[in-house]
Amino acid sequence: MSGEAGTATLNAAALPASRPRRTSVHRPPSAGARYRASKRSIEENYLATVYRWDEDRVRREFARLRWGSHTEMPCPHCGTIDEHTWTAAREDWRCVFCRKYFDVTTNTLLDSCKRSLQSVYVQTLLWSCGSAGIPALTLREMVGTVSYNTAFSLTARLREGLVRGQNTGLIAGVVEIDGAHASGHDAAGKRGRPLRQQQPKTVEEADAKAKAIVDAFNAKQAKRNLSAEQKKAAKTEQVELRDQGAVRDPNTGQVLPLNRRMVITLRRRSGNPGDGSVWTKVGVGMAETPEVVEHLATRHVLIPESVLATDEGVAFKKLGKQFRLHQTVNHGETLVGPDGEHNNLAESFTARQDRAEAGIYLNVEPKYLMDYACETAFREDHRRVPAPVRTAKLLFWALNVGRSHYWRGYTHGKNRKHELLVPEQLPVGSSSGPAPREPGSEMDGRPPR
Ligand SMILES: [Zn+2]
Questions:
Q1: Are 71 and 178 found together in one domain?
Q2: Per mean pLDDT, which of 214-223, 256-265, 315-324 is the most reliable?
Q3: What is the pLDDT of residue 187?
Q4: What separation in Å is there between the alpha carbon of 76 and the centre of ligand 1?
């Protein structure tokens, strides 16, 4: 992109002065943009069609996605495959063997859904449409009547389906791996304070603010020639941070903030030029270290027969030797190497993830970063399929990974107790809400509910 822009500016400068200067550069639309604008991407009036379906029609759709059939299915309780008895009064099947009742959502992520299946289908359809993400609050506005918790719980469960369903298995071929910084901004301090309140109100305040800016600049300059004591103090500070669990970036040597994470992407290049990639796996690590990268590559890539394409990060040097071929590109100099080496598809994932974090979800907690990264991987991989297919995929995973491990009882104060990190999970507590009360513990003045 920047290459094209650069060339256009040069050409404009070389033109005779009489011609008006071009102020914009015309770029042909990307393949993704062409698809989105095309007729193929649209199923005409699909939402209206779904609203015309009755509950039985939607149930057939769910059954097809879960079992591949709406007449014969395995009982979720005992596994007996048969034509179970449909009981119209309860709107449930009854197992011919164990006599228990079940529905399409029994023992799935959508188990505790108290909404109609049609409402779940419509919300999934709408949620699948954003290119970088749709907040639960927006979804609630689109659908109209549901509470925020309902919308949030559904989107969170769909993400869990992606974490435990889509983000599994192996990829092979030309695999691009890249890490990107995520989270770790000190956004909490600015939150809730309008810019106007941060403006100085008196002359003294303005002076103090100006002085602070100058001092900060001078301090930054002075860092180059610190005294031995100051250097020692800085080092102690870093050691303290590391004792608390912070890690060093292997590329720059800097100790990263405690809440900084790296989203590592593994993308398989499509065989057809221009098709990009449609197989993406992700993982979250504390830093882009050889250990983290190797762990993810072993989990998701068929190593000896694949080709690795990365930038020149130190984490990939040892890993690259295990592959058939390791192509690297020096991002300090160029985006595509002399022999066509690049990892731009992995960078394209990162761009979408950044937009989701900075533009849509805002302040994604490290604890749930993996869920959001998996969502971005889904949106990136399904950028050129129509909405009904995307909906089917989302529901397929939500119905086929078992009961929820992360979100059962979330609205009643139950939380996931760990962060999904590689190489190992990090135990973390609840980030918000009241602490769950232990039975028999001292009351804090409020009557029991
Ligand atoms: Zn049964």
A1: no
A2: 315-324
A3: 40
A4: 7
Answer whether residue 291 is part of any domain: yes
Distance from the alpha carbon of residue 234 to the mean position of ligand 1, in angstroms = 65
Tell me the pLDDT tens digit for each residue of 219-242.
Answer: 777 777 778 888 888 788 778 877
Number of domains in the chain: 2
Cα(68) to ligand 1 centroid in Å equals 18
> What is the Å distance from ligand 1's center to 109 Cα?
19
How far is the centre of ligand 1, averaged over its atoms, from the C-alpha of 114 (Å)? 23
| Residue 90 alpha carbon to ligand 1 centre in Å | 16
> CA–CA distance from 143 to each of 49, 122, 161, 264 (Å)?
16, 8, 22, 34
CA 102 to centroid of ligand 1, rounded, Å: 9
> What spacing in Å lies between the alpha carbon of 162 and ligand 1's midpoint?
28
Instruction: Tell me the residue range of the domain where 181 lies.
Output: 174-185+259-381
We report the CATH number of the domain holding residue 375 as: 3.30.420.10
- 65 and 114 inside one domain: yes
Give me the sign of the Cα torsion angle 348, 353, 356, 358: negative
Distance 21 CA to ligand 1 centre (A): 75
Residues 141 and 307 sit within 8 Å (Cβ to Cβ) = no
**408 Cα to the center of ligand 1, angstroms:** 23
b/e map 208-225, b = 16+ CB within 10 Å: eeeeeeeeeeeeeeeeee
- Check whether residue 126 and residue 180 sit in a common domain: no
Say if residues 178 and 251 touch (Cβ distance below 8 Å).
no
Q: Residue 357 falls within a domain, yes or no?
A: yes
Confidence grade of residue 444 (pLDDT, cut at 50, 70, 90)? very low
Mean pLDDT along residues 407-418: 85
The Å distance, Cα 313 to ligand 1 centre, comes to 54
Ligand 1 center to 71 CA (angstroms): 15
Q: Confirm whether 200 is domain-assigned.
A: no
